[in-house]
Amino acid sequence: MSRISILGTGAWGTALASAFVKQGHDVRMWGRNSATCDEISRAHTNRSYLGDARLPAQLRATPDMAEALENAEIVLFVAPAQSTGEVASQAAAHLPAAGLLIACAKGINNRTGQTQSEVIAGELPDHVVGVLSGPSFAADVVRGLPTALTLAMPEQDMAQTLAEALSGDAIRLYASDDPIGVQIGGSLKNVMAIAVGICRGGGMGASAESALITRGYAELVRLGVAMGARAETLMGLSGLGDLVLTCSSELSRNFSYGIAVGSGRDVTGLKLAEGVYTVSIANDLAARHSISCPVMHTAGLVLSGEMSADEARTALMSRPIKAESPELEE
Fold first, then answer.
1. Per annotation, catalytic residue among 22, 106, 189, 271
2. Which residues are registered as beta bridge partners of 30?
3. 106 catalytic, yes or no?
């Protein structure tokens, strides 16, 4: 049994907390909203994020960071990606010296271009930082449905030991020593899901969606490798696996957001779609590395209002005819 602290009381943080409690771990959550923390602790629900799903009776949440981090062996950062640095800074005074830190939010810092683990390490340089990512919906995890994820640490042995300690009947963890690759896959797939959702919203059909997923995956690999990821990592759960899931179900906020944009609906008030925050910096990174990413570029133009959804669909499906390279070169 491990003492686990989870920073973030949204859907994913709550689902992970529920799963780890059921596996016998001692889990405590932290969140900014005291009402949400009280609901988790007393009513054993988190209706704003997970509807009527029942949470373990022994799960506790608190708005007190010191209380949440007391004696923590493993700390999961599950707040929205763009607030990770702020949460890490707030945690600094309360972290046990030997605590292992794991980034769980999927996204690239839209000001600096840093991955989540880089953001955390910048605020907490004396701690080991890993990454947990992969094809997963909080609604499935909180119900105890089978889910496989990738756990990446700086060293393979460390990742393997931790993966074995945290795996259970419902959550299966696979070890990796490629944190960059795991994070690039989890971040860029959100942008691709918005692009595929725009295609779905315009009624272009499953064949067009499949083509867009395939070409989007090629972009993800090209940019990921340029940023230091290993191509084989991006072929696994945290890359291709996550991309397929996110582009195939309206449980995905990014896919649903893209559908709304593609069908001309008002997106005001829709739940957070991290790809909206990632697309601009992802295109900046592609430009810095001289990587051609037409799917991401077009999604960025639509989200910024520089191109209509109809124009985007036409542009994406009328790319120049050329050979399809096994090296995934554009």
1. 189
2. 7, 62
3. no
- Taking only Cα atoms into account, the Rg of the chain, rounded to an integer number of angstroms, comes to 19
The C-alpha angle 294, 298, 299, rounded to 5 degrees, equals 120
Please spell the DSSP secondary structure of 102-132, one letter per residue. EE------TTT---HHHHHHHH-TTS-EEEE
The predicted model scores a pTM of 0.92
The pLDDT-based confidence of 325 (bands split at 50, 70, 90) is: low
What would the two tokens of residue 39 be? 């609901």
pLDDT of 329 > 80? The answer is: no
| 254 close to 190: Cβ distance less than 8 angstroms | yes
Q: Which of 173, 170, 133 is CA-nearest to residue 24?
A: 170
DSSP 3-state of 75: strand
Structural domains of the chain ordered from first start: 3-177 (3.40.50.720), 180-316 (1.10.1040.10)
Phi-psi region of 132 (alpha: psi -120 to 50; beta: other; left: phi over 0): beta
Contact assessment for residue 295 and residue 212, using Cβ atoms and an 8 Å cutoff: yes
3-state secondary structure of 206: helix
Residues 6+ apart with CB under 8 A from 135: 147, 148, 149, 237, 241, 242, 244, 245, 246
